[in-house]
TrEMBL record:
InterPro entries: ATPase_NBD, Gcp-like_dom, KAE1/TsaD, Peptidase_M22_CS, TsaD
Species assigned in the record: Saccharopolyspora rectivirgula
Family as reported in the entry's similarity comment: Belongs to the KAE1 / TsaD family.
Domain Gcp-like: 30-318
EC class (word): transferase
Gene Ontology cellular-component terms listed: cytoplasm
Superkingdom to which the source organism belongs: Bacteria
Name of this protein: tRNA N6-adenosine threonylcarbamoyltransferase
Gene3D superfamilies from the UniProt entry: 3.30.420.40
Length: 350
């Protein structure tokens, strides 16, 4: 079997991504292009992603982003051997734009179509940077839309959810706390920056779902967000100046503490020795620092893709597409629907 070029299309949230990878005969996957257009600026004044705006932005960005990816790689559309696309989970209207585009490219080029799982894509992308994953590993996905602990037993074989958030996603908590503090959207980067000058022990914010009777591997950030809002309200009522850096550092410490403690505990209990952290929040400086420290202490290998690959992109979908093709998966039917609630166990829509 010769090398195959796999095109990946991502449109589940506010990033339009087109990626190209080369799948070699030995199953290795190489990144050739990663073009992304984001509509994040258009959502900023609403403090969160507005689905209708995202869908429209995908429509406008799809063809230019495709052109950019082809230019970056020096390839032509006719070089593409397979098309992979995010089938779900994600925003319905946003997913539909990518799925429709992928179907059009696949049928025009007469190549197979693979509708793949966005969450698995966040894990698969790490193979572009750090090579093949071990047979079993744990993944922590943390972004504006997801907070999940996944047991990965072969990236193209089996993914099982071990834990998830029962309310807000980790990134969502950052975005909401930023709003309370009058910091810009998305809230992760400004809070991360402010926290550097603050004391993480200044305020004892709650650690969600860490009581003895709480589910061990699920997360909750809504109580923490409310605690921050109450603390700020009280300080304002008392006429005190808000110590923004201390609030940010203390909030961030709670998030990083809970995420890393649960991830390391799950790795120990499931007897896996590799943890992959991906998603926009993986860029957080305190999270990566604490994860590195706790993984080192527990003898766990930590893998974090570079920030550009952690956030939503087309390369992660192309990478997952390449892995499922290498594993011999059947293509998806051309009438495949977008599925906003696609379960994490479904790696390819059949
Ligand atoms: O993966 P992503 O780009 O999009 C999805 O939500 O799928 O993640 C965006 C999220 C936002 O909530 C943003 O506030 C958060 O990632 N984020 C961060 C940092 N950079 C981005 N959160 C904490 N610290 C950061 N440095
Ligand atoms: Zn994502």
């Amino acid at each position: 079997m010769t090398d195959r070029i796999v095109l990946g299309i991502e449109s589940s949230c506010d990033e339009t991504g087109v990626g190209l990878v080369r799948l070699a005969a030995d199953g290795s996957v190489e990144l050739l292009a990663d073009a992304v257009a984001s509509s994040v600026d258009q959502h900023a004044r609403f403090g969160g992603v507005v689905p209708e705006i995202a869908s429209r932005a995908h429509l406008e960005a799809m063809v230019p982003t495709m052109r950019q990816a082809l230019d970056e790689s020096g390839l032509k559309l006719s070089d593409v051997d397979a098309v992979a696309v995010t089938a779900g989970p994600g925003l319905a209207g946003a997913l539909m734009v990518g799925v429709a585009a992928a179907k059009a490219y696949a049928s025009a080029l007469q190549v197979p179509l693979y509708g793949v799982n966005h969450l698995a894509g966040h894990v698969a992308v790490d193979t572009l940077e750090h090579g093949p994953l071990p047979d079993r590993c744990l993944a922590l996905l943390v972004s504006g839309g997801h907070t999940q602990l996944l047991l990965v037993e072969g990236i193209a074989e089996k993914i099982t959810e071990i834990g998830t958030t029962i309310d807000d996603a980790a990134g969502e908590a950052y975005d909401k706390v930023a709003r309370v503090l009058d910091l810009p959207y998305p809230g992760g980067p400004p809070i991360d920056e402010q926290a550097k000058a603050g004391n993480p022990e200044a305020i004892d914010f709650p650690r969600g779902l860490t009581g003895p009777r709480d589910p061990e591997f699920d997360f909750s950030f809504s109580g923490l967000k409310t605690a921050v809002a109450r603390w700020v309200e009280t300080a304002q009522r008392d006429g005190r100046e808000i110590p923004v850096a201390d609030v940010c550092a203390s909030f961030q410490e709670s998030v990083a503490d809970v995420l890393t403690a649960k991830a390391v505990r799950a790795a120990r209990e499931l007897e896996v020795d590799t943890l992959v952290i991906s998603g926009g929040v993986a860029a957080n400086s305190r999270l990566s620092e604490l994860a590195a420290q706790r993984c080192r202490e527990a003898g766990i290998t930590l893998r974090v893709p570079r920030p550009r690959l952690c956030t939503d992109n087309g390369a992660m979908i192309a990478a997952l597409g390449a892995h499922v093709i290498a594993a011999g998966a059947k293509p998806s039917p051309l009438d495949m629907p977008a599925d906003p609630g696609l379960p994490v166990g479904t790696l390819v829509v059949q």
